[in-house]
Amino acid sequence: MVDDNELNRLRDTAVPAPGQGAKARAFEAAMRAYDQENISAVTQGSAGGLRLTERAQKLWSEIMQKKLIATPALAGLVALPIAGYATFHLLREQPPKFGGDEKITETLADKPTTVKPLAKQAPGDQTVTEPVAVASQAKDKKTDADVESRDAGDALVAPAAPTKSESAANGAAAQQDTRGRGVPADAPATVNEPAAGTLQPAPAPTEELALDGTTSAPRNSRVAPMAESKLMAPRPAIAPADQVTAQEENRNRVEDFKTNPVHAALEDPVSTFSIDVDTASYSFVRRSLKEGALPQADTVRVEEMINYFPYDWKGPDSASTPFNSTVSVMPTPWNSHTKLMHVAIKGFDIKPTEQPKANLVFLIDVSGSMDEPDKLPLLKSAFRLLVSKLKADDTISIVTYAGEAGTVLMPTRAAEKDKILNAIDNLQPGGSTAGEAGIKEAYKLAQQSFIKDGVNRVMLATDGDFNVGQSDDDDLKRLIEQERKSGVFLSVFGFGHDNLNDQMMQTIAQNGNGTAAYIDTLAEAEKVLVQDASSTLFPIAKDVKIQVEFNPQKVSEYRLIGYETRALNREDFNNDRVDAGDIGSGHSVTAIYEITPKGSGGEQIDQLRYGQATVNDGGVANADEYAFVKIRYKLPNEDVSKLITTPVTSANEVASFDEASTDQRFSVAVAAFGQKLRDEDATAKFGYDKIMEIATAARGADPFGYRSEFLSLVRLASALGDNR
Asked: In a designed cystine with 370, which of 303, 359, 376, 434 is the match (CB 3.0 to 4.6 A)?
């Protein structure tokens, strides 16, 4: 027996209002019933002179302007002719292919449809959101006759209920599509219900027939099935011409160069080159690999990769001799017939208390091309790190350039840190790139605050995209060469990618007695401008050149690994007017030759028929030497070079590769990796696994994680490339 109190409580309880989902389902059911009863055929519209999507848009616009769809039923009635008209033209562009009595058995279940919700503007500026589609596919296969006999009326039949797995997949897709559109992820997957009083227009036709020309309509709309006629294959959506975005072109400018060849010691026994302490190539390679692509071969300068890492080579005892050289000979891990001659140079490390005063001019590119997160914003953060490293009595100036150059900060003591940092923080990008004007203004400012016996340096930060004034590399080279005679040097720091003028950066850095680095992360900025600040800012020797003469009695062939862009003529070695690289405080430089001992069987060049007799007749002095290494340099404030020589004998040789020092073995691993990335013949059969094995065993002390990061790059390259 029912309790009276319970009955009274039920009687007084208000009937719950119907949910929005129930309203939507009832509305759809009513529309289907209305359409089936009142529509027997679908007419085809015709509006000559316009493209298909333009005609549909024009028709829809006229309908909306005349307010012919005052009721939802009429909205559906109008949408059907548009869809039929679009289907007709699609059939004309891509007619079905028949062959005699050949049957067509494709069904909707075989045709995946792109689903994407659309936000359209309804009359009265009311935002209307079209339903989020739920793709429903027929599970029961129809006979060939059934499929062929389908007409427009079939499109009005409610789609079959989706299976549980389909519903889950479609729900996930709906949630993804509603991100960023103000639709909660847990909203019903079938429809986005209109707000009260909001006009809900008919859905757009499917795929390329959408009224805006870009997006597919929901599959559960009454128009979508008609557009998906069984007689036509699905076509990819085609965006209008004004929405087509061309694939961004890689506009990096990198100098092309050929790998150093093998030389016969008998014919060409002398090798001459300028030292290189730049590190830009390593950072560029790292960025490429972390973005999932093997680097372009010419972006890989092996010597810059080797010299990226700090090594504990033996340095000089006093500043009077600015650096010390160590030469070793060891077996080659990738060729049993050759040996490696490893030349290591270590610069004198100036103590912080002895460092000279610095007069620095930050020359900062603020042109429009710098308006990227990895350009000007990263640049600002990088220079903030450098400011924190300087001493209170150092001087900083800031010059910027875009359409024209301008001075942002006159010479200011580093003690006024807030003033300097505010000037950096207020930099904004915009305009073209008048690099030449900026360089001239920066040198002028450096001269105004020139410090005798100090460090006077322009620090250019740019993506290298000079396009106003002198933009030719040779013109810029001459400009920099002229300015360096004043005692003001120049270093270059590259930022960004896809527009990086690496070739220009290398040119002006090499001729400005400076270094070139590529900064792609804040961690790299910390390495270059904080950890390596002494070697970056304080030179201990300039115009450093190396010349090696090989003894043909001991060495049949040789090749220099890297330094292709630093090659010098033989006569340039003794010419003090020829510019070369600089070494900073505490800096290390490494060069590696692969040599073929005479009689080893690893020769690649045939011997001369008559040359050997000449050598035997005259004899060879110092016949027990592999080679004779000569290093020429100038002190920073001098113009006359000095000479250091080192004979290389069996006393410099180690019996096995494992007997070489940890730093030597790691540098060889980096050299092998660089050659592998350049796809050089020497390391073609030397796999990444072997490189990994050497580098792992020789990782040693790694306080900043540089060597661990190198191992990760080898793994990335192995995954991306051919590890034979």
From this structure: 376
Residue 264 has which token pair? Answer: 């016969």
Top-confidence range, 244-248, 400-404, 423-427, 476-480: 423-427
The sign of the torsion formed by the CA atoms of 185, 186, 189, 194 equals negative
Task: Report strand pairing: 555-561 vs 588-597.
Answer: antiparallel
Output the CA torsion 18→20→25→30 (10° steps). 70
pLDDT confidence of residue 15 = 65
Q: Nearest-CA neighbor of 323 among 589, 648, 640, 547?
A: 589
CB 554 within 8 A of CB 624: yes
Give me the amino acid identity at 210. A
Q: What is the pLDDT of residue 350?
A: 86
Domains, the chain, in order of start with CATH, read 29-243 (no CATH), 263-350+540-602+621-720 (2.60.40.1230), 356-537 (3.40.50.410)
Q: Identity (one letter) of the amino acid at 228? A: E
- Provide the angle, in degrees to the nearest 10, between the axes of the packed helices 20-38 and 72-93: 60
605: closest CA among 365, 350, 263, 376? 263
DSSP 165-178: HHHHHHHHHHHHHT
pLDDT tens digits, residue range 199-211?
Answer: 444 444 443 333 3
Q: How confident is the model at residue 123 (pLDDT cuts 50, 70, 90)?
A: very low
Contact yes or no for 569/272 (Cβ under 8 A): yes
Element (H, E) at 457: strand 455-462
Q: How far apart, in whole angstroms, are the C-alpha atoms of residue 568 and residue 547?
A: 9
Among 531, 223, 598, 203, residue whose Cα is nearest residue 386:
531
Contacts 24+ apart (CB under 8 A), 135-143: 135/162, 135/166, 135/170, 135/219, 135/220, 136/160, 136/161, 136/162, 136/166, 136/219, 136/220, 137/108, 137/109, 137/162, 137/166, 138/107, 138/108, 138/109, 139/109, 139/163, 141/107, 141/109, 142/107
Spatial CB neighbours of 429, under 8 Å, sequence gap ≥ 6: 366, 367, 368, 369, 370, 371, 375, 376, 402
Tokens of residue 716, six digits = 């990335």
Looking at per-residue confidence, does 153 or 580 come out higher? 580
> Which stretch of DSSP H or E encloses residue 323?
strand 323-332
The 3 state secondary structure assigned to 481-548 is HHHHCCCCEEEEEEECCCCCEHHHHHHHHHHCCCCEEEECCHHHHHHHHHHCHHHHHCEEEEEEEEEE
β-pair partners for 249: none
Given a contact cutoff of 8 angstroms between Cβ atoms, the answer to whether 699 and 711 are in contact is: yes
Instruction: Say how far apart CA 591 and CA 667 lie, in whole Å.
Output: 9
CA distances from 489 to 182, 281, 484, 557 (A): 56, 21, 6, 38
- Report the amino acid identity of residue 537: L
Q: Under a CB-based contact definition with an 8 Å cutoff, are residues 181 and 100 in contact? A: no
Q: What is the pLDDT of residue 6?
A: 67
Using 50, 70 and 90 to split pLDDT, how confident is the model at 25? confident
Q: Among positive and negative, which fits the CA dihedral 305, 309, 315, 319?
A: positive
Q: What is the mean pLDDT of residues 526-546?
A: 89
